[in-house]
From TrEMBL:
The active site is at 54 (phosphoserine intermediate). Mg(2+) binds at residues 54, 253, 255, 257. It comes from Oncorhynchus kisutch. This is Phosphoacetylglucosamine mutase. Catalyzes the conversion of GlcNAc-6-P into GlcNAc-1-P during the synthesis of uridine diphosphate/UDP-GlcNAc, a sugar nucleotide critical to multiple glycosylation pathways including protein N- and O-glycosylation. Residues 41-78 form the Alpha-D-phosphohexomutase alpha/beta/alpha domain. Binds 1 Mg(2+) ion per subunit. The gene is PGM3.
Amino acid sequence: MAQFEEVSQKSAYGTAGFRTNSKQLDHVMFRMGLLATLRSKKTKATIGVMVTASHNPEEDNGVKLVDTMGEMVTPAWEGYATQLANTEQEGLLTALKDVIDREAISMAQEASVFVSKDTRPSSESLSQAVLDGVHALESHSKGALTLGFNYTLIFDCWFELQKLVSSYKQVYSFVPNRTDDQKALLVDGANGIGALKVCEMETYLKKELQLSLFNDGSSGKLNHLCGADYVKVQQKGPIGVEMSAGERCCSCDGDADRIVYYYCDSIATLISTYLKELLTQAGLDLQIAVVQTAYANGSSTRYLEDTMKVIVRCTETGVKHLHHAAQEFDIGVYFEANGHGTVSRKPTCTYLHTNLENAALLLQNTVNLINQTVGDAISDMLLIEAVLTIRGMTVKQWDAIYTDLPNRQLKVKVADRSVIGTTNAERRTVSPAGLQEAIDSLVNKHRQARSFVRPSGTEDVVRVYAEADTQESADALAHEVSLAVYRIAGGVGEEAKPL
Ligand SMILES: CC(=O)N[C@H]1[C@@H](OP(=O)(O)O)O[C@H](CO)[C@@H](O)[C@@H]1O
Ligand SMILES: [Mg+2]
């Protein structure tokens, strides 16, 4: 934000809030407690604060604010968060007053803040620091305070497990004769919060879905050799899970807001084509679109646009961008390649309830399985299971819908990653001078190739993505592009590392 440029940016509110080693976060947490209280007063609604570093190592932690409808806060409030996190102690009061004035906040307004944490050991004291921030502000104002403290996951309060379970049972009743093999699903809980949720749900679904839980947190370390990120980036199965041929397996990440099914990343394709079929069968003329980021495999984009005739949009990385773009359509399906996502629908789509044709009924129950707030691995898992059940599809048939182009992701360390400016949903760079031209000429040397670079919003690195007709070609292109980044954008240390 322009008005904050003078602040030296020690930490910035990135793609998923603040994230770093847990030892450096006490003051940030306290200040996010202050800011959440102000946001709640401003909106006259409950604001969530989630203490988590998701898929990052157990030693890290982080914090993100969750706005009134479950979405990320607006760019202006992200700017305030960055401002507060970087202000020296003596300037804190002035910085707070600045937010209060700019937003014309009435301090007499009651505040309601809901704090959640993941299973990291540091989350205990860091979430307490958030609460301290909330209390500190409230003791200096006349406002009353209601404070929720949720020890598990934020979706507990907005989306009840029972509703998910009963919608799944309804969908299942359309296809009751599933074999035991078809009902079996191996779930990697990443030793995190998703494992606790699966444990809770397992007993209710015995008849419809046989869940076997691995990495349940009883012994292993959070995200270590397991979880969605490990599986996606390393292209390996999680520790402790022995898969036999054709078995379905999925992994949550550390805070269970995303899911990966093996060996495919085509969740959006599976769901959008299924919903499109149901809409046609039910005779409903609703617009359905898939929102992707530049990381979506080129083959999936082509399949959706050319074969399925589904509208495809591309946005910047991070669910907040995808979510907003999806909301412009009657039904918006969005999943990042790494498993973050959901399906949103316009409120007007609730008229589905009035049509009791079979297809519409199925559609209604399917839609009830969807948690429209940003990111819920358990709801996503049940939605995918429902679609596979109804379509009688094996995981192999799903994988065969289209073939991913071979791809590679690398990261490059540079002195200041903000020198990389991007445009066109991060698919092209506008600075530093000469970088895009260099990427273009490298891409031209490969077949069916595409490559882009962007500064990460969660790590101090530049990310490089490349895809091409063969794995060798994708690897070579990613390497060549990362060398160009290193040379033109001020690389430091090691040249490039696998993501
Ligand atoms: C390439 C990639 O996987 N990027 C991830 C990662 O963002 P970066 O801005 O790339 O660091 O973390 C985000 C938050 O978890 C997630 O939404 C996003 O998809
Ligand atoms: Mg996560």
